[in-house]
Amino acid sequence: MSEQIPVQFDLKAEQSFASFYTASNQQVVQYLTDTASGKGDQQIYLWGDHGQGKSHLLQACCQQAHQLQLTAFYLPLKKGELPSPDILEGLETFDLICIDNIEYCAGNNAWELALFNFYNQHRENNHQLIISAHCPPNYLAIELADLKTRMSWGLTLKLQELSDTERIAAFTCKARHLGFDISPQVGQFLNKHYARDLPALWDLLPRLEQATLIAKRKLTVPFLKQIMAGE
Known about the structure:
The protein is an alpha/beta fold. The protein is 43% helix and 11% strand. It contains 8 helices and 5 strands.
């Protein structure tokens, strides 16, 4: 690969280890923290259902690395919107690379080959790699056999599913880090209408933050209903 400087990624300061509600995932977070610090496993494959916090944790890993003066890059892959695989050029020199939603490159020959070449060079440099996906590595639809095999190298971790109560606690934790509080009454309302839909909860969070800032008022159940009715 020729050297080039990759485009900068969007570092979301609110997605830190401090703002992640660990619940029964304490050990997972510890492994990720160690690898992001350059002293843990060289490769981690993190998987779990959509909305459980994989993107949050990969962002947190990059923040952790930056705080320790390590070079890190977060690369999110989107279904049907893959960037050119040239974005991988130069990433083998980074101390930590976090690739989110690796399943979306499956079946794309150019991406699979570029990822395979990057993987080999990055590993030869003894750098850290964290990958996320919605399924275990052996269920990935990657066609390049040698690349699929490499997905199983290193440590494979599964994010444990949260209970309804833990989902609201996680939402409350994130809200607190954004600067507003979730009352028990609001929590009960969300538990009834949103608890089993984590992606919907996370999509709701920035809208509530903006609404409370604009209105300069606390989030109550009537205000929450008002916000939702206005959308």
